[in-house]
Design goal:
Largest sheet: 5 strands, antiparallel
Strand order of the largest sheet: 8-5-2-1-9
Radius of gyration: 23 Å
Order of helices and strands: HHHHHHHHHHHEEEEEEEEE
Number of strands: 9
Strand content: 5-15%
Number of helices: 11
Distance between the termini: 73 Å
């Protein structure tokens, strides 16, 4: 038998084959109440956004957040030509998701540059949207330089301490929906979602480090002395893995919002609401604990919270007092994740979790 090892065939970058569809045939995407895509088409959306970002945005741009406005609009129009996405919060989600996929692709390219044996191999890696040879050489030189090497080693050491995610393109939101369908549960804890997202298809943990983390989470979950899920800054995931960072919450994933970063328009409107319309907000995850006190504003589905309609079965409220500061918001934003972050601002909240003087107590 030939003992020669056949190299494992690796999956290459996905190419964007087509963009525009007839207006009547544009694809609809279903979102959950936190503004995250959850159906099968949403997986295809993710597969579409990655190649689109790679083919239009050159990797020589240092930071996605500094993307020129005309390029952002071009990307958004390309997405709208294929998908029925017209809301501002959907645009915010799409560009944020595309940015994350773009950064991942850029990281892969840099890894390939480092592995290249000579100048010819590095030149062969140049993406088509980088027209200038000198610009490409400058990019390569920067990534092979000592300053970038130091940053790269630092990030590599950080990743060694992290557990491996195995959810692929499904994302936490779709994994949550899958668990709900499988178990019949209405509410799924982020511990359950996190554990599911860190297992192989056969149900086994991805590696030893992850297996140890899952075992500890399950042990801690059975300890009744630990805080309830309302206190996400002190729950078992935070205690074991450390605090969430950058608005990203483990077990909930990217997006997780129906709010734009603009936060000025509704403040002037809500300030005029009489104090007699006081209300209490109950923990939306299932308990009857009061997590905040504030003022009722509207239950009109078209009412805006930071320029975004609240939608059906929701209310707009102004938060005055955080009774449980660490309680998680129903719809988080880039700068607002917990109740204490939203004091002095408007939020959307499930109608059946808002207690008003003129309504029956739930």
């Amino acid at each position: 038998m030939d003992s020669t090892t056949v190299p494992k065939k690796k999956r290459g970058p996905t190419k964007m084959k087509t963009i525009a569809l007839n207006g009547d045939n544009r694809i609809e995407i279903k979102f959950n109440d936190k503004g995250q895509p959850i159906d099968k088409e949403s997986i295809k959306l993710s597969s579409f956004l990655g190649p689109l970002g790679r083919e239009i945005v050159p990797f020589t741009i240092p930071n996605w957040r500094k993307l020129p406005s005309d390029m952002r609009e071009k990307l958004w129009k390309c997405v709208q030509a294929r998908y029925k996405l017209d809301q501002e919060w959907q645009k915010h989600y799409v560009l944020k998701e595309m940015g994350a996929l773009w950064r991942t692709s850029k990281s892969r390219l840099v890894s390939n540059i480092k592995m290249a044996k000579n100048e010819d191999e590095r030149m062969a890696l140049k993406p088509d949207n980088i027209k200038s040879i000198s610009e490409w050489k400058k990019f390569v030189e920067e990534k092979l330089g000592p300053r970038f090497k130091g940053k790269s080693e630092e990030m590599k050491n950080r990743r060694k301490k992290q557990t491996s995610y195995t959810g692929g393109r499904r994302g936490y939101a779709r994994i949550t929906e899958d668990i709900k369908k499988k178990t019949g549960k209405q509410v799924v804890s982020r511990v359950e979602v996190w554990i599911e997202a860190h297992k192989k298809k056969n149900g086994e943990p991805i590696n030893t480090k992850t297996a140890e983390a899952i075992e500890k989470l399950q042990q801690m979950g059975n300890d009744s002395s630990l805080p309830t899920p309302t206190n996400l800054r002190e729950d078992v995931i935070t205690k074991l893995l450390g605090p969430d960072k950058g608005g990203h919450v483990r077990g909930l994933g990217r997006g997780g919002q129906r709010q734009t970063v603009e936060e000025s328009e509704d403040v002037s409107i809500v300030k005029t609401i009489p104090h007699k319309t006081k209300c209490k907000l109950l923990d939306w995850s299932g308990s009857t604990e009061v997590v905040a006190e504030g003022r009722f504003s509207s239950d009109d589905p078209k009412a805006l919270v930071h320029h975004v309609p609240i939608g059906p079965n929701a209310m707009r409220v102004w938060i005055d007092i955080a009774k449980v500061p660490n309680a998680f918001l129903w719809r988080s934003a880039s700068k607002m994740v917990f109740v204490e972050d939203a004091v002095g601002s408007t939020v959307a909240w499930p109608s059946d979790k808002v207690v008003l003087p003129f309504r029956k107590q739930f």
